[in-house]
Amino acid sequence: MINPNFRLLVISTSTIYGSGYLEYIREEILDFLQTDELLFIPFARPSGISHDEYTLNLKTALEPFDISVSGLHTSKDPVETIRKAKAIFIGGGNTFLLLKTLYELGLVEVIKEVVAKGTPYMGSSAGSNLTGLTIGTTNDMPIVYPPCFEALQFLPFNINPHYLDPDLLSTHKGETRETRINEFHKFNNQAVIGLREGSWLRVENGNIELKGSLSARVFRPGVSPKELDSGILPESIYL
Amino acid sequence: MINPNFRLLVISTSTIYGSGYLEYIREEILDFLQTDELLFIPFARPSGISHDEYTLNLKTALEPFDISVSGLHTSKDPVETIRKAKAIFIGGGNTFLLLKTLYELGLVEVIKEVVAKGTPYMGSSAGSNLTGLTIGTTNDMPIVYPPCFEALQFLPFNINPHYLDPDLLSTHKGETRETRINEFHKFNNQAVIGLREGSWLRVENGNIELKGSLSARVFRPGVSPKELDSGILPESIYL
User: Fold this and answer.
1) What CDD domains does this protein's entry cite (chains A, B) (predicted)?
2) Cβ contact, residue pair B137, A139, below 8 Å
């Protein structure tokens, strides 16, 4: 079911509380990449920071560990740059902006193509939303209008990054995350994996493995959500 | 600037903590409506409940106070039903679903038409998002793909309902509401009014009045957000 060429690292959040950018997951990243060159796609612009600024943040986090980082925004031929990339990282920020930019620049197909052939793909937050079927379970505001909600569709389900359990003490009446995902399932059939901060999926050899110290929450239409322990995901979760 | 025919009640939330559906704002609603017939548009389906169920909730809340409620979903000719309505209420739920349904049924123009002529319009949560320029500052998940993000555009700004202050004690690294609105302003120029739960806008005689006991938070691109006390909004806030 999962293309055995896929090598994916699908990260809930780039940063956990009290720790620097990608610090908590650095060992996993270095182990995963198996290259010293990383192509960064900074289009999601968290807090609206510039592509340059965002790329600099990543350089600061990874270059001391001998990973050289280049930002796709500086390329004159982004399609060719993606074709030649040793590994790709799409960082977090606004998922609508990210998806719209990829479609506008005509990059969706080439990313799918190289990842299907084995280029390692790392995504965090918005970049992880894109690994699923659609961006229909993003937490972001629709600040721009993308041409569709279809994502890169590496995984046969949707991701909800930064998954947050209901706060039982809250007096706020806005919908909980779980209520929102239940609303999604009135109109969509795919499973949704709620990845808590500090969790990630590593996909290799046709297997999807949940890593990090936390369980994930799996939502399917018409059945109660289930907690999933770390380890290789049984196909029954998403088929 | 504001059409003097507009009669709008733009409510942040239908329900506040510890109180029944619309209970906290019932007196205001009765005073605002000035009619005993209310047309309910239940298309936002909160938690995915059916149109019938949702309409029943509203009947239960308002019929004891001599407001007769009918659900638009039961009409064979919704355009004509809207033309004849004494007052319209669009309830909360999922904003994407609501907007998509209105466009699909061809109801956006007729609602704009009757409200411009003076039909009272009441919106709560998703129904309040629609009174602004776009749904770009909704909190909801994009569970369906609407044909555009343009809303009913009664007000020359956007609404963020259920506005929530950052939780200074939180260890969660997902974006705060304020961060999300700042991201919106990298790509959009209109002011955004964050309406806290328990607040609402009443629009009449060309004035927009903030009501309820709380202040609202106004966001404009490039300047610090401002707290706004209850009372008539100065035009400088949104022009």
Assistant:
1) GAT1_Peptidase_E (cd03146)
2) no
Q: What's the token pair of residue B203?
A: 């629009």
Question: What is the helix (H) or strand (E) element at residue A229, kind and residue range?
Answer: none
Report the candidate in A184, A11, A170 with the shortest Cα–Cα distance to residue B144.
A184
CATH number reported for the structural domain that contains residue A45 in this entry: 3.40.50.880
A185 to B48: CB separation less than 8 angstroms, yes or no? yes
A47: nearest CB among B13, B45, B179: B179
CB contact under 8 A, A17 and B172: yes
A117 belongs to a structural domain: yes
Per-residue pLDDT of chain B (239 residues; tens, 9 = 90+): 799 999 999 999 999 888 899 999 999 999 999 999 999 999 999 999 999 999 999 999 999 999 999 999 999 999 999 999 999 999 999 999 999 999 999 999 999 999 999 999 999 999 999 999 999 999 999 999 999 999 999 999 999 999 988 877 788 777 889 999 999 999 999 999 999 999 999 999 999 999 998 999 999 999 999 999 999 999 988 87
Could you give the CA distance from residue A35 to residue B39 in angstroms, rounded to a whole number? 62
Residue B176 domain-assigned?
yes
Residue B233 lies in a domain: yes
Note whether A81 and A118 are within 8 A (CB).
no
B15, B126 Cβ separation under 8 angstroms: no
Give chain A's domain count: 1
| Residues of A acting as catalytic residues | 125, 140, 162
